[in-house]
Design a protein that fits this description.
60% of the residues lie in helices and 2% in strands. By secondary structure, it is mostly helical. Belongs to the CREC family.
């Protein structure tokens, strides 16, 4: 079987080298649309952090594998993309991961690639944070006060900027709904945590980055973990049991379809808890274990993730990925399913 696979790998890789003339042009309009959408967003710390395994609220990041395999290079894998071009693009990525050009991807090569794509997400977050910082620093003095941020936040919620600023300046009561008030209190807690000693309630650009993206700061990463444990911990012991971690989110299952979704959600949570987060497999996840799991720059996590990703598609069990395996399991790596796999591979030849 191996003798038949080797020439297939070489053939697929040769296609990569010959296809520059027909490669899909970059979809710059997509990037512009995303950038424009970000400008319109509220200046809240995002719930979803690219390249981080859990959302800020403790839910699994369902796009994590695609984020650490594709990085920002997602154009060409949309649902309406032309399949042949998507396959070619995927093979270009394969050749970049395959550093030694032996026609297969090892765990070490995948680990290096994951670290590189994670760093891309870090740089993207830095750029976004700088843009938001300028938006909330109207006087351009390089510091943002809590009151300045509070004004911009309430304006994003539909309040009048001049009216809000005047009331805050004169210490007058602001009339906001209960939900907004709760969000403000949580944000102020995060603001205090991001404010490095000596505490002055003024955030520099670096501190503001930690406020929006706690994965950039060890101290803020700890704070995010505490928030997740607080939200999921039902018995108050400041650690998570399996039942606590897999407990269904608020909502009622109304039909069989909904039950199926919930069952799948529980299965994913259980697997993540037992195989990846609970490092010593004692049935309990401590804050330290969760922090190590959440740290996107943890080299051990990157290697473990690389091995997990390879295991998903490694049909011949050689602990490596061949081109045809990546193509067959394209939905796992790119979020895009390349239909009719057998015919598609035949077309490549």
């Amino acid at each position: 079987m191996a003798s038949r696979q080797a020439p297939c790998c070489l053939w697929l890789l040769s296609i990569v080298l010959l296809m520059d003339a027909s490669a899909r042009p970059a979809n710059h309009s997509s990037a512009r649309d995303k950038a424009g959408h970000r400008e319109d967003n509220e200046i809240l710390p995002p719930d979803h952090l690219n390249g981080v395994k859990l959302e800020m609220d403790g839910h699994l990041n369902k796009d994590f594998h695609q984020e650490v395999f594709l990085g920002k290079d997602t154009d060409g894998f949309e649902e309406d993309a032309e399949p042949r071009k998507s396959r070619r693009k995927l093979m270009v990525i394969f050749s970049k991961v395959d550093v030694n050009a032996d026609g297969r991807i090892s765990a070490k090569e995948m680990q290096r690639w994951i670290a590189e794509k994670t760093a891309e997400h870090f740089q993207e977050a830095v750029g976004e944070s700088r843009a938001h910082f300028r938006a909330v620093d109207p006087d351009g003095d390089g510091h943002v006060s809590w009151d300045e941020y509070k004004v911009k936040f309430l304006v994003s919620k539909g309040h009048n900027e001049r009216e809000v600023a005047e009331k805050i300046k004169n210490n007058q009561e602001l009339k906001v709904d209960e939900e907004t008030q709760e969000v403000l209190e949580n944000l102020k807690d995060r603001w205090y945590q991001a404010d490095n000693p000596p505490s002055d309630l003024l955030l520099t650009e670096d501190e503001f980055l930690s406020f929006l993206h706690p994965e950039h700061s060890r101290g803020m990463l700890k704070f995010m973990v505490k928030e997740i444990v607080r939200d999921l911990d039902q018995d108050g012991d400041k650690q998570l049991s399996l039942p606590e971690f897999i407990s269904l989110p608020v909502g009622t299952v109304e039909d069989e379809r909904g039950q199926g979704v919930d069952d799948s959600w529980v299965r994913d949570r259980r697997k993540e808890f037992e195989e990846l987060i609970d490092a010593n497999h004692d049935g309990i996840v401590t804050m330290a274990e969760l922090e190590e799991y959440m740290d996107p720059m943890n080299e051990y996590n990157a290697l473990n993730e690389a091995k997990q990703m390879i295991a998903v598609a490694d049909e011949n069990q050689n602990q490596h990925l061949e081109p045809e395996e990546v193509l067959k399991y394209s939905e796992f790596f790119t979020g895009s399913k390349l239909m009719d796999y057998a015919r598609n591979v035949h077309e490549e030849f």
